[in-house]
Amino acid sequence: MNTRNHKLHGLTVLITRPVELAKQLASRIEQLGARPIIYPVISIETTPDNIQTNQLLQQLDGFDIAIFISPSAVTATFERINRLPSQLQVAAIGSSTEKALHQHKITVSIKPEGHNSEDLLALKPLQTDEVKSKSIIIFRGTGGREHLGDTLISRGAEVHYAEIYQRVLPQNAVSLSDDELNNLDIITVTSNQGLQNLFKLTDNTDLLCHTPLLVPGERCFHLAKTLGFNSVFQSDNATDAACIEALIQWAESP
Fold it and tell me: Where are the domains of the chain?
């Protein structure tokens, strides 16, 4: 296949997202003429059974709204349950999360056009007059941001977290060598934790910080600058489509 006319021809792109989530992006990058390298800095694991989460999963009939933070939250939840109660209003952050729910035949009735908690909180069904005195369950990973839950509580809702999965450093992860870093054109990360893990896993952080970096939003952009990265570029969100669009814009920039 002749890739010379493809928009990412000849570039080497490091993909740091979890391996199960990296394959589709890697395939798309390869179709555009680049060489993707999958180097997962996060592993997604279902959280061990615990009394609090088990109780929440057994009491889903008592909730009014269920919010899913990510595709990983959907996958981990349906490894533990067979269905959601029919009366639940379901909210999803991001198109990928909505797609994951559709695969389980779940209709998403509360969905922002954007891809973060702030976009979700701006929707009418989650305003004070709508959620006051309602019971909401948020399916998320351990140690996630508190902004969504805190805001809903301030609007009068009763909020419970089902921390259904955890993000951990991959076992037996090996640091990137200087030769590997020197052969990279750009690195993509999709979260603050991923960026922090990449930094921890790299022995030569000075060389790492001289490699162009693509991040999914302002919080990650500011973290990258704080860590010392010289060339940081920002996509609109962490989806494959946004990442590809930003990579093309970066590749075509003067």
Answer: 12-42+170-252, 45-168
